[in-house]
Amino acid sequence: MTGLEPGGDPAMPHLEFIKASGKLLPHIESYYLFRYDAAEIDGIERVDLGQLRFMISGEGTVFFPDGHSEPTRPIMVNGPGTAAATYKMRGPLHVFGVSLRGIGWKALIGVPAHKVADRIIDGEKLFCEQAPLLLERLRSMTTLEEMVAAIEPLLMMRQQEVKPVPKAHVTFLRVIREWTATDDPTIEWLYARMKAETDMGERQVQRLCKEYFAGSPTHLKRKFRAIGAAMRIYQGAPLDDVIGPFADQSHMINEVKHFTGHTPTTLRANIDPVLAVTLDNESFHFLPDVIPETVDVRRR
Asked: Which of 170, 135, 151 is nearest to 59 (CA)?
């Protein structure tokens, strides 16, 4: 376990997380417990692949990049984002969450990502009567370990209810990981590799990108590039060392702000404290793993 440990200043957020293991490992990146005991909370949420969240306490509103807003739900699935979102919450805010991998979105949620991008799904509709019962149990628990043990049976049950991920899709996700980890992830490389391994055409690859990641390969590449740059900037890299994949400095600034809600300056000087944790720790590196693998974000 690591992160911002509980205790200390109650006016500051605290985040604990545990890396996934066991049978759910291919589908889940990590489990986390977020605590913020302030009465009013304003925050920024960067793009991500998909989150299952149980609101142990607190409620509020999420404001999405297209201008619409949605209230939080006691049990909710956050669809993959197309750009950074903001939120306003009434605390104290305690959230138990599950960060999904690309394959986990398909195996556990089963809804095409592009149909729920920048949206909140009512988790009770996915998990039926078991989810509210679990939420009540979570409210009586005090440790993240207890919560992980409690949710695993529900996730295993859900995995059996959803159709298995086709083998060709598993290959697609593995190639996506290899593509994003290359020095120059060109769209042509992705199409050629998928054609060689699965005989998929460009339209099929584009369809799967939308189904798993809510956007085209080009948009997916932009996400990875911007998050990778934001990580390096936050961790202290000079802008000249980060600008390489972008057309120029203005382009880099705009892309980083689009996907994280921050400029390079505010990443270092006035960053949202929760976003800081996700950029500082490899467990939130955002690559759509099929099989977990450490990737050096400095290569992109």
From this structure: 135
